Amino acid sequence: MVAGQQYAINEMAGLLGLQTPAGAAAGIIDTLLTDSRKLVSPATSLFFALEGPQRNGHLFIAELYKKGVRHFVVAQPVDEAAYPEAVFLHVNDPLKALQQVAAAHRNHYAMDVIGITGSNGKTVVKEWLYQLLQPYKNIVRSPKSFNSQLGVPLSVWQMSAENNLAIFEAGISRPGEMEKLEAIIAPTIGILTNIGPAHSEGFTDDAEKLAEKLKLFKQAKVIIANGDHPLIGEGIKPYPAVFFSWGKQAHNAVQVLDILVKEEETVIRVKQREGDPIELIIPFTDQASIENALTCTTVLLWLGIAPASIISGMKGLQPVNMRMEFKQGINNCIVINDSYSADLNSLTVALEFLQQQARGKRKTVILSDIPENKGDALQLYHTIRELLQRYGVNRLIGIGEKMQAQADLFTAVPECSFYVSTDAFLEQFHSTQYLDEYILVKGARKFGFERIVNQLEQKVHETVLEINLDAVAQNLKTIQQQLKPGVKVMAMVKAFGYGSGAAEIANVVQFHKADYLGVAYADEGVELRKAGISIPVMVLNTEANAFDALTDYNLEPDLFSFELLQAFEQHVKNAGLKHYPVHIEVETGMNRTGFAVSDMAALAGHLKDNEWIRVQSVFSHLAASEDQVEDSFTLHQYELLMEAVGVLESMTGYPFLKHIANTSAILRFPQLQLDMVRLGIGLYGISGKERVPLQTVATLKTTISQIKKIKKGETVSYNRRGVAKEDSVIATLRIGYADGYSRRLGNGVGKVWVNGQLAPVIGTVCMDMTMIDITHIPGVKEGDDVIIFGAPVPVQQLAEWIGTIPYEIMTGISQRVKRVYYGEG
Ligand SMILES: *Cc1c(COP(=O)(O)O)cnc(C)c1O
Q1: Could you tell me the distance, in angstroms and rounded to a whole number, from the CA of residue 346 to the centre of ligand 1?
Q2: Does residue 662 have its Cβ closer than 6 Å to ligand 1?
Q3: Among residues 94, 121, 154, which one ends one of the domains?
Q4: The overall pTM is greater than 0.90
Q5: How far is 782 from 788, CA to CA, in rounded Å?
Q6: Is position 306 within any domain?
Q7: Where is the Alanine racemase C-terminal domain (predicted)?
Q8: Domain boundary among 433, 459, 485
C-alpha cells in the first residue's frame, strides 16, 4: 500500500541475496504489500506473506493471485504450479526480508534522516517538525504513527530522489527491537522526546529502557534530547554523536530561560550559548506540548533555521489530530473530514481510508491546492492525479487557483469541477448534488474547509453517541491476545451492536478478520447483509416467520428444539436448498433456549446423513460466567456441553465448531475457549471486574441549552423534587429519558461530566431534558458539551448508580440519538 521507488523484481531478489527466479526479470515493483485488504495496484505490488499469531499471510496468496498480484515473498512451501504467472521469492522470514529491502532502499540516499524515539510525543514531534520545516525542505515522513517493526520499513520505502529530508518514528515494545529499526532508518539526526515509566514497555527499569532506545542513534551525528535528565546525559556518553541538548540548566546547548503559561498560549524564552534570548509563543498550554515544542525548537536551531522563522513557525503550530472522523452527511452521504492538513503523504493516507470505508460506493474528493515544496507544481499534480486514479475516485472537486490551473490534468477522473476559492464553491453549493456517496474533504487550513463540512453534515438534535471504531478494533485485538492460537471469534452485534450500530461494528470486525457475527433476530442479520457484510452470521432467535429472510440472506439459524428443526428442514427442502448451515444450542443451565442433553442421541440420529441441513456449530450459553461464587456451576455447564458434543460427534460423523464462552468466560476461563468464543460486551470496551485494558468505545454527549440562577429554596423540575439548598446555578441539558437517560438518575443519583468535573442531576429527569447543578463548577457556558458517559464517567458507573448493568444502559440509548463514528476501525 505504500508506493515508493520502482525496482525490477530481479533487483528486489538481489537486495535479498537471492537468485533471480527464471522469467522474472520483467516485473516492476513499486509497492510493498503486507495486508491483502489494502491491495490497490496488483501488477506492481510485492506481497510479503507475514506470519503472525492471528494471521498467516500465506493464506491470502490465492486470493491475491486472482486479483492480479504476481510477486510474492514467502517462507512456507507454495504449490507454485497453481500460480503459473507468479514469481515466488523464498526466504526464512518475510518480515526480516521486508526490513532488509527497506534498509537497502534507505542506503541509496545521502539526505539527512531524523529518527525520533521516546515514550511519548513521537508522532506530535514528527508532525510539528513537518509543519515547521516544510517551507524549507522536501520532506518524506512516517504516515500516521507507523513506527513498528512493520511500520518503519513501510515508511522508509517512501523515500525518493525528490526528498531532501526524512523524518521517521521508531517505537519499541521489548528489548532487542531497536537494533533492527536502526538498521532500517539509520538516522543522521537523533531525537529522544522523553523517557517515561519503564513498566509499560517490557523493561525492568528506566536505565535499561533508555539504553535500548539510544541504540537508534548508533550512526547519528547529533542527538537532541532533554539535557536536565541525569540518566539521558549519562546514557549518551558512549555514542560518537554531539549531544545538542535543551533544558533549564546552563550546560544545555539550548537553555530554557523561562516558561510562562497563559490562558491560551505559552511564552517560552530560550537562548543558545552564544546567542541572544529568543521569545517563542506557542498556541498550547499543556506540559506535553511545551516539551514537544522545545524539542522542535532545538532541532530547528541545530539545522540553522533563523530565529525569526522559528518564532513565526511556532506561533502557527497546529494541533496534531491523527484520527480521521466520519460523519453522517446529507442525503445518506458519509463525510470524511480531514480538513486540517494537505500534503501528498496525508492525502495518500486519507484516500486509503476512503477506499476502505466506501466498499464499492461512489467516492467524491473535495481537495484544495497543496502547498508545494520546491516549485515543481506539474509533477506534484501529476502525482495527485495518479493517486486519485489509483484509489478509484469517481468525482473530484478541486478548490484553489492552482487546482484550477491544473484542471486539464484531471480529465482521467470521471467527473471533475474546479473553483477558484472556497467561497466560489459555497456560492454554487446545492445539497442535491450529493447523494448516497462517500465524500472526503481534504484541504490546507487556510481554505477553511470546515465550512464545507458544515454544509455537508446532517444537522440534528445535539445529543450524540460517539463511537470510536479504533477502540473496537483495538478491543478485538486485545481479546484475541487472550485466546489460544486458532480459536475463532464470533462478534456479537445483536441489539443494534449493543446500541453502537450493528453494521458499523460488523464492518470493523469483518475487516479485522472476525470469523462470525451473532445477532438476535433475522431482521438484524438482513440489515448486515444489506450493508455489505459477507462473513457468516448466526441468528439466535429463530422464528418460523423469518425462515425466508434467513435463506434469502444466507443467515444461519440457531435451532433449539425438534419442532424448529423439522420446520426449518421442511423450509430448506421447499426452497430447493441442501446442506444449509445451522447451529445447535444445548440447554446446560441457563434455562432459556436449547435442546436437553438427554435429547442428543435422538438428535444425532436425525442429523446423521441429513441432506437438508448441516451443523456448523454446537454451543451453549453460560448463566453466570462473571460470578466467582458460581464458578462450579459454570464448569458444570461446560461439562454438560462436552457430554452433548461427545454424543453428536460420534454419531453424526462430521466435525463442527463448539463454543460456550462469552466475554467474562473468555477472560476468566481459558479452558472454555474451545473452537470459538462469542465476544459481546468486551468488544464495546467493558471487561467487568477483569483488569483487561479495554478501550472506551461509546461516549454519550449532549449540550447545555440554558443556564439559570435560582435562589435558595426554589425548586427544579416536575413535582418540585429538586430543592436548592443554597443560591444555585442550574444548567439544562438536551437529553431526557426518551433518549435513554433513565428517570432513576434523577435527584442527585446521576452525575455528568462538565468542564472537567462531575455535576449532579437536580430534580426529576424529564422526557427530553435534564437539569444539573453547576453551582460549584466555574466557567460553564450555554452551548458547552457535557459527557453523560464515556472515559471520564464509565458506563459501568452509571449502571451502578441505578442498580443495573452496562448492557441495559448501552442498548437503551434511543434511536433518535445520532451515532457519530470516528477512527479508522
Ligand atoms: C449476548 C450473548 C453473548 C455475548 O455475551 P457478552 O457477555 O456480552 O460477551 C454470547 N452468547 C450469547 C448466546 C448471547 O446471547
Answers
A1: 39
A2: yes
A3: 94
A4: no
A5: 16
A6: yes
A7: 697-822
A8: 459
